[in-house]
């Protein structure tokens, strides 16, 4: 296992950095916000806590939560326009600095494509660099499930995305940054995992992550070291 010093060197020389989105790049958990918007906030928040703690499989938790919410296409669009996701302080500067250094930045999320693409546009991250879950709707806009073929729909899916990126782009060093168990699971194949606790602290991640930060300024400072 890499030491903290080695991990910092991997981060400074990374070809690609993958960020989780909910409670990492943005302050909220997108699915919880959607649930509140649709009137089933408390029940879904409890399911999210269990999923993030790693006690149930991600796909099972996602299926159950969406089965409760059953969001329509119109509700999803209205959520984004009325309550746009709030970027975590420091993320805009960090992504900008990574881009300046020629580092590819990806958003790898168990959240929903439409919300994550909105976040990506704010950070000048191309849509092609977004990996997230896709909601499905009937022709009348009613909820019709989600695309279960997306790798991010299941436990271990973020690791599959990183493996795919390494194969496609021949990246030598890929860093994964996130707040949850599904992010930590992605290392390996990620070469380094950085736990993030700036919005919410997941006990399991804080205890197990060798490199744990609570503000993106800490990573900006690392990049200024060289």
Automatic annotation (TrEMBL):
SUPFAM superfamilies: HAD-like. It comes from Ciconia maguari. InterPro entries: HAD-like_SerB, HAD-like_sf, HAD_sf, PSP. Catalyzes the last irreversible step in the biosynthesis of L-serine from carbohydrates, the dephosphorylation of O-phospho-L-serine to L-serine. L-serine can then be used in protein synthesis, to produce other amino acids, in nucleotide metabolism or in glutathione synthesis, or can be racemized to D-serine, a neuromodulator. May also act on O-phospho-D-serine. GO terms for molecular function: L-phosphoserine phosphatase activity; magnesium ion binding. This is Phosphoserine phosphatase. Pfam families: Hydrolase. Belongs to the HAD-like hydrolase superfamily. SerB family. The active site is at residues 20, 22. Pathway: Amino-acid biosynthesis; L-serine biosynthesis; L-serine from 3-phospho-D-glycerate: step 3/3. Keywords: Amino-acid biosynthesis, Hydrolase, Magnesium, Metal-binding, Serine biosynthesis. GO terms for cellular component: cytoplasm. It comes from the Eukaryota. GO terms for biological process: L-serine biosynthetic process. It is an enzyme of class 3 (hydrolase). Its EC number is 3.1.3.3. The gene is Psph. It catalyses: O-phospho-D-serine + H2O = D-serine + phosphate; O-phospho-L-serine + H2O = L-serine + phosphate. Its cofactor is Mg(2+).
